[in-house]
Structure formats: structure tokens, C-alpha cells
Amino acid sequence: MSPSTPVQPGQIVLAVDGGGTKTACCIARILDANQWEVLGNGQAGPSNPRAVGMDIATEAILLAVKSARKGLEAKDIACDHALFSIAGTLDSTVRSALTQKLRVRRLAKNLAVVPDLYPLLDCTSDQPSFGLIAGTGSVGIGRNGNGQLAIAGGWGHILGDDGSGFAIGREGLRYTLQALETTGEPFGLAAVICEQWGVSTAYEMKTHLASFSDLKSEVAQLSKIVVDQAQKSDMTAVGILLKAADDLANLVQQLRVRLDVPEKQISVRVSGGLFQRDGFFLEVLKQALGVGELKPTVEVLTEPLNCVLEMLVSGFQPVQYELLP
């Protein structure tokens, strides 16, 4: 996709959202400005090239596209534009390599790959916009009105991912292990985690941890228990969520300062597993964001593909923006 080839009504577009867990795809017909009709949907496995490798990522994307075409009457329908929002492509070398692999498959006349962060930005307005992803990991992106972008976080679970599902689960697990090694009688949050994993001693807990092939994902899943217990007024769980919300709010504040955006112009779009359940953690985050004069509007993005389509139809071009170091 390039500025010289804008999306027009009647054209067929392909939108793909790929991450570390799954790849979703849809084929749609453009009706009018910011309106479209979905013709087919597809899904496949993970397509983050840094997590699963370039070849597996490419095959997952192709499988998702093939799956979307199954529902079309004309399965060989030609797509005019395609936009692939893929996790793990912030590095330009990785992004270029994936773009080349997809282009040779002739999936569309005009094709672009962007990091999965970019569709979080509001492409329907020139006003400053911010986005947060809080799933297994965490990362934030911001755009000001002067053609500049900035990214904060996304360091991975070893160095960062503060405020993420992994960070929340890790704190719950640390609390549980501490309880087991001190009193030997876990209660509250610790007792629920022990019950979930079927353990009763610190030794059993450590043995259980060693059995996981994907420890990061398993620890992140504990965030659900922490949120549930916080809703039941478990003060340890509440404290963990408050810390996580503060860490995410700090990402937005860091971006706001770097981009020189006034506090009153904050609009935040959030995505990720922590915001997809019952809205409890979202309310905690809103309180953390609303410090001082900062009164942000917060929108939960429940369907990432719609954001990819929005970005595709709007003609938003990330390459036209300066990414601050």
C-alpha cells in the first residue's frame, strides 16, 4: 500500500492481525468512507516471526488467508489492497523479510506489513492518540500532531513487560511461594493459586513450574485468578492490580512527555487479554490514568481486525511518521 494507491469504494481488501497465539484474517469489500462489508473470515496459528520463526509465521498467515477464502463464492477473488498487522515486526529487517515473502505470493496488488501496535492509533483523526497492549506482555505507542511516533515498553518478560498478564501472574506466584515457604499454610490468593495448580508445598510448586514447556504463558494465565480475587476484595490481589495499572499508566505518561502532548489531549485505545474479560481491570487502569489534570478517554478494542481495516481504509501511512528513538 502506498499514498499513490488509495483504497476506493468497491475494492476488495485483505486484513490480517497476527500475534503469538493466533492469526486472524478477513476479506472485505469497501463500501464508502470508513465502511466495509466482510466477505470472509479465517484463522490460523501464531505468526509472530520472532517467536515462531519466519517460515512458520508466513505459513500461518497464508493458512489464515486460505481459510478466509473458503467462505467466498469466488475463491480466486483478487484483492486490491492488503495490510498485515503482525507482532514481532517492529524491527525493519524482520518486517522487510516478511513483506518480501508475502509479496511473492501475490496476495494483493498493494501490500504492506506493519507492527501490531500501529492499528491501536486512531487513524480517523489527526489528534494525538495513544495505545496500550496488555496481554501476556505489555507495550505502548503514541502519536502527536507533528508527525511523530514513540514506543514505550515491550522489553519482554525478562527485562520488563510491567503491567502485563505475565507481571500480574508472576506477582501472584511470588506471593504464593513466599506464603508456602514461611507459614506453609497459604490463604486467600495463595490458596486459590495452589488449588488451581494442584500443589500444597513450595517443593511441589517448584516441581510443577519445571514441568511447563511454555512457562511465560502459564504464569500469565494466573492473572485471571488475581483479577477474580481482587473483585472479591482480596487486598493482596488488589495491590497487585493497582501496581500493574500504575505501570501501564506510566507508559502513557512517558509517551506523552516524549511527544510533548498536553495532558488534556489524551485519548487511549487499549487491547489485550487483560481488557477482554469483565472490565474490572479496565476501571482500575482508568483510575491510574486519571491522575492530576489527566482525564483521558479510554476505548477498548475488542476486535483487532476492525482496527486493521480502519487503518487500511483511512490510508494511514506509518512510514510518513518519524519514530522517535
UniProtKB/TrEMBL annotation:
Domain ATPase BadF/BadG/BcrA/BcrD type positions: 16-281
Segments forming a coiled coil: none
PANTHER family, sorted: N-ACETYL-D-GLUCOSAMINE KINASE (PTHR43190:SF3)
Name of the protein in question: ATPase BadF/BadG/BcrA/BcrD type domain-containing protein
Lineage: Bacteria, Pseudomonadati, Planctomycetota, Planctomycetia, Pirellulales
